[in-house]
Every structure is written in C-alpha cells, then in structure tokens.
Amino acid sequence: MKNIVRILTVASAASLMLAGCQSNKLEQPMTEAHFVLAPTVYGAFDAPATRAVDLTKTGTVGHPDYYHNGFLGEPDKTLLPIGSTVWLTYRKAKVANPDTENPEHWGPIDLQAYVVQNAAGYNALYPIKSHSIFEDGITYLEVNDPPIYTQPLYLPDGKYQFRMVHPANRIVRDNLKMQVDNGMYVYSNDERYEQTQSKVIEIKNNDLGIQNIVLNPIIAQTVRFKVTVRPGKNVSKLEMMSQGIEVSGLQNPELEPDGRLMYKWSSMDIKDTLVMKKADKRARTYIREFTDNGDGSLTGAVGALPTNSMSTMTVILINAAVNGVPTQYAIALSQMKFFHGHSYNLDLQLDLDGNIHVMNWANQSWTGEVKLN
C-alpha cells in the first residue's frame, strides 16, 4: 500500500489524495513546492546615476563596479503586487553537485504559470492554468484570464534550479521566447548579477510533505521614462491631450523571421539578455495614462528597451492643453545611454509669459503610420 497524505495546497482549498493499492516497488517521495514570499523586484527603477559608468568594463574582475555591473550599489526592492502573473521554469539536477553553466548536469526544463496572492499574511505564488494558441504557424502559451487555479507543484527529492519572468505574457511554446517591444515592462532573473541569478534549491521530503521556497529577486529588463508636468506661471488649467506624450528615438527592435522581437528569458546565458542598441528616430512609444497628483500636476510613465542615444537624440513630445489651448512642447535628450532597471525622470513646469497668439488651423499635428506605394 502507498499512503499519500492530505496536503494543504496553495491553489485552492485543501484536497485529499486517495490512498490506493500498489505493487511493492518503492516510489520516490514527492514534496509540494510552496513558493512563499513571492519574489521581490529590483524594479523600483533607480535614478540614472550610472550614466558615467562604462558598462563595457564592468565585466572585468577588480573593476569598482564589477559586483553590480554598472549599478552604483544594490537597487531598491519592491514586492510584486497581488494579482501579478509570472512564468516559472524549473529543472532537476542529474548530479549531486551540479554546475549551473553545464547543461549536461541538468534535466529538461519544465514550465508552470503562477499568480501572486496573499497566504496567511505573506505573498505567495499560486499555480494557475495556461492554454495553447495556434497563430500563423506558431503555437503560443497564454495564461487563462481570469486565472484558473490548478494543483500545486510536486517535486521528487533533488536539487532544482528556478527561473522566472513577470508578467506572464504570451510565449512561444517550443522555446519559451517572449515578445518585447517599446512600451512594455519586463522583469526576470538575470545571470549578470549575483543577487538576481536563477536560484538552486534542494528539495527534501519531510513529515509535512511541504517545503517553503523563497526565490531570488527579479530585475527590470527595460527602461522607464517618467514625466511629471506641473502648472507654472499664469497657468490655471493643465490637461493632457489624447495624444499624450510621445517618446521617440528609441531602440528599434530587430525582427525575427516571424516579425517579432523575442526575449529568451528562460536562458541561463547572459548573451540572451535584452541588448542595448542604437537609437532610431522612427522607434517610439507613448504615455497615455496619467496620475493626478492633487496639486495640479500630472505624472505618466512608460517602459522602453535599453537604448544608446549617443548619436541619435531621444525626443519627448508633450501634447497638453494649457488653459484650454492645445500646445506642444519638445525636449531633446542627447548624448545619453538608457540602461535597464533605471528610471529617467523629467519634472517639467509649464509657464506662460506675455501674450500668446494661437491659430489652431495652422498648428495641427498627428502621429501615425502611412504605407507608400
């Protein structure tokens, strides 16, 4: 007889696994992997203090910024909000003392989707279902919306390596690659930093059949542009127009054969991280959601790909109605590099000085794409 104990799952209510008659063959015990304290995020986005740091040299042992690879100290950590979704990969070691860089020491990669929920006062990862979608000859995986909880992860004893990405956007089923473009925020484990590397955990069966696991923090792989617009002299009313704020002169992502940029977040190789590339004046994204700060000012933010803007300017185009009058302001950011995990904050005050003459019919502008024959 094989006895299976009653285990409290993190997915839903407790469930009873029925005992059944089996042969005399011994089976390896299984332990429920309970991910408590859902991973923190190095994604509060530090100020761009690393502008003067040459990232091409920080990979050299002995360099003063080697440990943080360009960050001047450990970034602030925040919690993943309740309701956040993540993809988590795990693989079991084949040897007692595995080398994380030796693929021969590890078995195949498995995948599970999770959502962050509160469990007895702690943030924990609850397993959820995903489904397949076939489009244009490619099979993708997506999490169910709204989330549908599933059974917890049961693992036989051994050493496992865990890696994750947030949010759990659509991924390619065959290689787990994820589409990333300007306008998106993406967080994942990162082998470039000791604190954010994929974590290796030893699973050991115990009397409870449950093992609590705390994962390493994940870090933002994208940049953040944060813009605050404040009313100044002679400005009684400030509103953002529907066009919002345009950020242009960003990295133009290279396209794979299927027409999409793909980030291989599940890879343990640092060459598969999102690479900083030169700015392209045609690559842009928009801020169209703003927070009223209560003092008349408005703040909005957007994610972008890491960009080298040393030779091509990045331009912030603000479309605002000042005292009811549609107005555009343009700010050029030149000779800059925009690093992942950093926030580039603009705090702007709009003033009116003297007489303003506006001819709306001659001051129209728009953004869009036109295909020419």
List keywords for this structure.
single chain; nine-stranded mixed sheet; six-stranded mixed sheet; 0% helix; disordered N terminus
| Poorly predicted runs | 1-27, 46-53, 356-373
Please, how many helices?
0
Task: Tell me the helix content.
Answer: under 10%
Determine the mean pLDDT: 78
Radius of gyration over C-alpha positions, nearest whole angstrom: 25 Å
Largest sheet: 9 strands, mixed
Total strands: the figure is 27
Write the layout of secondary structure elements.
Layout: E1 30-35, E2 40-42, E3 78-79, E4 85-92, E5 110-119, E6 122-128, E7 130-135, E8 138-143, E9 153-156, E10 158-166, E11 171-172, E12 178-179, E13 187-188, E14 199-203, E15 210-213, E16 218-220, E17 223-231, E18 238-251, E19 262-263, E20 277-287, E21 291-292, E22 298-304, E23 307-309, E24 314-322, E25 325-333, E26 336-338, E27 343-350
Parallel strand pairs: 1-15, 2-16, 17-27, 20-23
Antiparallel strand pairs: 1-9, 2-3, 4-5, 4-10, 5-6, 7-8, 8-11, 10-13, 10-14, 12-19, 13-16, 17-22, 18-20, 18-24, 21-22, 23-26, 24-25
